[in-house]
Amino acid sequence: MQDMEQRVQAYWTKRARDFSTVRRNELHNDAMGRRWLTEMQRYLPQGKTLDILDVGTGTGYFAILLAREGHRLTGIDLTPAMIAEAEATAAAMDVPARFLVMDAMETAFADASFDVIVTRNLTWTLPDTEQAYREWRRLLRPGGVLLNFDANYGDNVRHQRQKDSYIPATEVYGHCGITPELERENAAITLAMPISRQARPQWDMALLPRCGFSRCGCDENAGRRILGDLDLADAPLFLITARR
């Protein structure tokens, strides 16, 4: 498992700067930001400042988006280069958020540290998703909520009908800087992950109660509402919700 984590970290180290460009484009697109917030606010407790953990924060998109709403944000990522980009972006936008290099499957936080955990496009990169789900439940306060935006990217790689690299870098959701070598490495990592052999999100929905979560739900139309035509045909974005 450690070898796979190192491989994932090496891949995202190469992608960090270009990926930061992608997410900065998103942060400057107010309409897309409002769509993300609309989806998340359906599930967030209202009328209070929340302690929120953005797991697999990457270059900090969710953390910055939610910190601008007045919440206390911590973003963690396995890749130091991603955290450096997140810190730079938050500083440039004068947004208060804390960013730490940390393993999503085994964090250093105390029990019941957060009201909400959000994550985007992370679980497909984890060698042990069950361990991650159990860890995230540990971190949530009673009644706390998990919001997991993800997709079955294994299907996308297997079908190869649509690729992010075909979208121009100038587009808000474009993945600039992907070379053929990086594209092959992405596909290899995706298919090597055990989760890519599962039928998702049904598999997640069966796993979450075994990890101690309750009130689990899944919205398979979230990607279409947020991303529109940019949602991948073979790997549409879904939103998994669960409570401690």
Describe the structure.
The protein has 244 residues and is of the alpha/beta class. The protein has one domain (2-243): Vaccinia Virus protein VP39 (Rossmann fold). Helix content is 43%, strand content 18%. The chain has nine helices and seven strands. The chain has helices spanning 2-27, 30-41, 61-67, 80-92, 129-139, 153-159, 180-192, 202-210, 222-227, and strands spanning 51-55, 72-77, 98-101, 114-120, 140-150, 214-219, 238-243. It has a seven-stranded mixed sheet, with helices on both faces. Strand 1 (51-55), helix 3 (61-67) and strand 2 form a beta-alpha-beta unit. The longest helix has 26 residues, at 2-27. The radius of gyration is 17 Å and the shape is globular.
Strands, helices and their partners?
Blueprint: H1 2-27, H2 30-41, E1 51-55, H3 61-67, E2 72-77, H4 80-92, E3 98-101, E4 114-120, H5 129-139, E5 140-150, H6 153-159, H7 180-192, H8 202-210, E6 214-219, H9 222-227, E7 238-243
Parallel strand pairs: 1-2, 1-4, 2-3, 4-5
Antiparallel strand pairs: 5-7, 6-7
Helix pairs in contact: 1-4, 1-7
